[in-house]
Amino acid sequence: MTEPLVVLDHVDKWFGELHVLQDINMSIARGEVVVVIGPSGSGKSTLCRTINRLETIDKGTITLDGKPLPAEGKALAAHRAEVGMVFQSFNLFAHKTILENVTLGPIKVRGTDKAAAEKQARQLLDRVGVGNQADKYPAQLSGGQQQRVAIARALAMEPKVMLFDEPTSALDPEMIKEVLDVMVDLAQGGMTMVVVTHEMGFARTAADRVVFMADGQVVEENTPDEFFSNAQSGRAQDFLSKILKH
Amino acid sequence: MDDIANDPGLVLNAFWVTIQLAVLSGLASLVLGTLLAAMRVGPVAVLARFGTVYVSIVRNTPLLVIFVLVFIAAPTLDLLVKTPFLVKGVIALTIYTSAFVCEAIRAGINSVSLGQAEAARAIGLTFGATMTQVVLPQAFRATVPPLASVLIALAKNTSVAAAFGLAEATARMRGLTNNNADDRWLIFITFAIGYIIIVEIMSAGAISLERRWRVTR
Ligand SMILES: Nc1ncnc2c1ncn2[C@@H]1O[C@H](COP(=O)(O)OP(=O)(O)O)[C@@H](O)[C@H]1O
Ligand SMILES: [Mg+2]
Fold first, then answer.
1. Which residue intervals of A86-159 are DSSP H helices?
2. Most buried by CB count within 10 Å: which residue of A191, A199, B56, B59?
3. How far are the Cα atoms of A94, A121, B94, B139, B150 from residue B144, in angstroms, in the given order?
């Protein structure tokens, strides 16, 4: 089991004229936690989204567990079930209760029976600290609670890898920690994670590697401590000096 | 002929036909309109094109012309020859109303944020399941006010069927008014009130649905 879980091999993507991903090569080991950092518009979200094919790529290959991503249809849906995703804007299903948000995937995709799915969902909601909100609707929860539910919803599919796209950027400061704590827990539990975030505290505590992106390219990658204290490229130094200022 | 006060059965019968027309066309239009909306937002280009063309043709065609096509033109092509009046009325009203239902639902679908569909796909739901489990239920909630207008217009459009010999409320009223000139106002008002009652019931239903779904949007 030493072959990497996720491999991006010479991946290129264009949005019209914009070369948003430029020859990306990246391999993520099982249990590894990779933090992706970089200025706004550098392609971090796009990179994240190509791994579960919410965005298609124009060149190169992406494999999960040695298998190339399916192009479409049922096979693609099955692939997405193996890749958990947490969005900046939570995207909980607004018309479903918290419990239903978590059970929908297991019931409709995995064919789990309702009672078993609910039991698992309640355990997951307890684990992320919102077990007592199960019967409410998303709009009735705080942002931090909603994001923790979104994590539980993704975990319910028992994914091989979890993608987080700026999971705390839409949160009020006092709620950031409760979400990061859940993520640190996950990381320490051995989950393979790709996390787009500017939270240096999280990167230092939980990440095995920091990948710095700018203008669609991976400019630099290193361990968190090395990267934050001793960035090599001018772009990274410049970027770090800006986020450290505020 | 008896006047309206002496023949409640005639009036009731006429309204029964109107209600049948409205309910059957309403249900059929909801089904067809939803299918058309799914085609228009779906990933299959040919179907999307078909949905767009259907809607733009039907929306730009007067209801009367659709009735002429179904009741007069179709039989000359050996189509719908033995079909009962009620069924032909439902067909014509459904062809027309489904285009408006499609647009109301499509607007509802567009009001559901893209993130909802992305989250659904991200947990592994297929396109069909994403639509039926996540997008359409929310779209329907956002669609209640415009759909109510479409269905209310449908209830009133059942009167167009009168011109085609269908024994529905308006036709019955004309028969009555022809024979009872003195009671014309009473009869007119009675039928107007009948339509108002139907429309009010529909509005009340729409408002209560909106209220019930308010928290969940
Ligand atoms: N769907 C899209 N169509 C066209 N351009 C896009 C699309 N999504 C993102 N972009 C552009 O691609 C670039 C990278 O975007 P993104 O991956 O969101 O960057 P980041 O997450 O690092 O801020 C930006 O310039 C953005 O405007
Ligand atoms: Mg982004």
1. 98-105, 114-127, 143-155
2. A199
3. 17, 32, 18, 9, 10
User: Would you state the structure tokens that stand for residue A4, as one six-digit string?
Assistant: 């990497």
What CATH number belongs to B2-213?
1.10.3720.10
C-alpha to C-alpha distance for A90 and A107, rounded to whole angstroms: 21
Q: For the segment B162-193, what is each residue's pLDDT rounded down to a tens digit?
A: 666 554 456 566 666 666 556 666 666 777 77
As for the ipTM of the complex, it is 0.91
Task: Kindly list the protein residues that place their beta carbon closer than 5 angstroms to ligand 2, a single-atom ion.
Answer: A 45
Where do we find the tokens 């040695």? Answer: A66
Ligand 1 centroid to residue A46 C-alpha, Å: 6
What's the mean pLDDT when you consider all of chain B?
Answer: 82
Alpha carbon nearest to ligand 1 atom 13, residue: A41
Query: Which residues, judged by CB distance below 6 Å to any ligand atom, belong to the binding site of ligand 1?
Result: A 15, 18, 20, 38, 40-46
Ligand 1 atom at shortest distance from the alpha carbon of A38: 22
What residue ranges do the domains of chain B occupy?
2-213
Tell if the CB–CB gap between B124 and A109 is shorter than 8 Å.
Answer: yes
CA separation, residue A93 to residues A90, A165, A227, B134, B216 (Å):
9, 18, 38, 7, 9
Chain segment A78-101, per-residue pLDDT in tens: 899 999 999 999 999 999 999 999
Exposure of B94 in the CB half-sphere (CA atoms within 13 A) = 22
Judge whether A197 and A166 are in contact, CB under 8 Å: yes
**Count helices and strands in chain B by DSSP H and E runs:** 10, 0
- Distance (Å) of CA B146 to CA A21, A51, B107, B151, B213: 42, 39, 9, 9, 15
Among residues B177, B205, B196, B216, which one has the least CA distance to residue B3? B177
**What is the reported pTM?**
0.77
> Between chains, do B123 and A92 touch, taking CB under 8 Å as contact?
no
